[in-house]
Design goal:
- By secondary structure, the protein is an alpha/beta fold.
- The chain has one domain: L-arginine/glycine Amidinotransferase, Chain A.
- A hairpin with a 4-residue loop joins strand 5 and strand 6.
- The longest helix is centred in the N-terminal third of the chain and has 20 residues.
- The chain has eight helices and 19 strands.
- It starts with 12 loop residues before the first strand and ends in an 8-residue tail after the last strand.
């Protein structure tokens, strides 16, 4: 029986992949980094290329291990990538780049139904990141899961918009998207059109998933990277949205049928003096372990109170350097099996 079975963001988790901060290093800037717009671009500039301080890596691994221990207490199977210190640059016939690190499986792998997909990521530095997950992917394939890989994009200079700041950083020349641009809600899939996911990527995903699913492109929702600090799907009929990005004019049409919680202002706290790879809204990057239980940044007490008021218990935990490394609890995980089946929630 396939070890991969997941159709939504909230049903009880049975198996999950958790990333690692080992060997974390910020790659020397490639074209993808250079062309991400506005605030996110400024955040990249604040980070120096090269290895992160060992203190950041050690403390993050401590936080991740505490998180994993809590998952194990809940009888959730946890898998980890092989953290390899890649020293050689990535080289294709067109360019070369330094490697990224495997902290956020959510960005490079997409699990839907009994399929797990290697996505065509926007950064050159992540071109071969899924190598660290190969043994896990092999195990899933042997269990009956469908292991797919999107066409490798060439990521030529031409795909990155470096001329018009009013347009998205990613041109529509070939399918390119990060898996974290996507949220699953049964037969309906939300796909963020942004600097980290283009229209052709949306079209490719719809083609691969077939008629059982409808992929909904989300336009003018958030121009920068990833959807999971903009919208969180909490349970059928209930979503959490980022008020700095989502309003009645741009919220996905289907979600107008649901009850909407507006996230409170995030609590900012000292995360490190090494710079930031994420905005304060990483605080709403929560992980639903079940419709009744969420893993939430321990500092976000207003958000915790809001969730509890709406019948969701909270497991408050820390990722002390989440903003520096660029990932909260949803980012650093990939739920591959939940107790669920394909349903229509709209």
């Amino acid at each position: 029986m396939s070890l991969v079975n997941v159709y939504n963001e909230w049903d009880p988790i049975e198996e999950i992949i958790v990333g690692t901060a080992l060997h974390a290093a910020m790659p020397h800037t490639d074209k993808g980094f250079q062309t991400i717009q506005q605030a996110t671009h400024d955040l990249f500039d604040a980070l120096s290329p090269g290895e992160f301080p060992q203190k950041i890596i050690d403390e993050t691994e401590e936080d991740i291990q505490i998180f994993i221990n809590e998952l194990i207490k809940l009888n959730i199977t946890v898998k980890r990538p092989e953290a390899t210190p890649f020293k050689e640059k990535i080289k294709t016939i067109d360019w070369e780049a330094n490697h990224y690190f495997c902290y956020c499986p959510r960005d490079v792998l997409l699990a839907i139904g009994d399929s797990i997909i290697e996505t065509p990521n926007v950064f050159r530095s992540r071109y071969f990141e899924t190598v660290s997950y190969k043994n896990i992917l092999l195990e899933y394939m042997k269990s009956g899961a469908k292991w797919l890989s999107a066409p490798k994009p060439r990521l030529l200079d031409e795909i990155y918009n470096q001329d018009d700041p009013n347009q998205l950083a990613l041109k529509n020349l070939e399918p390119v998207f990060d898996a974290a641009n996507i949220l699953r809600a049964g037969k309906d899939i939300f796909y963020l059109i942004s600097d980290s996911g283009n229209e052709l990527g949306c079209q490719w995903l719809q083609t691969i998933l077939g008629e059982k699913f409808t992929v909904h492109p989300c336009h003018k929702l958030y121009s920068s990277m990833h959807i999971d600090s903009t919208i969180s799907l909490l349970r059928p009929g209930l979503a959490l949205v980022n008020p700095a990005r989502v309003n009645e004019n741009n919220i996905p049409e289907l979600l107008k049928k649901w009850d909407i919680l507006t996230a409170p202002e995030m609590i900012e706290y000292q995360y490190s003096n090494h710079g930031s790879f994420s905005t304060k809204w990483l605080g709403m990057n929560l992980l639903m372990l079940s419709p009744q239980l969420a893993v939430v940044d321990k500092h976000q007490t207003p958000l915790i109170k809001l969730l509890e008021k709406n019948g969701i218990d909270v497991l408050p935990l820390l990722l002390r350097h989440g903003r520096t490394l660029g990932g909260g609890f949803h980012c650093i995980t990939l739920d591959v099996r939940r107790k669920c089946k394909l349903e229509n929630y709209f």
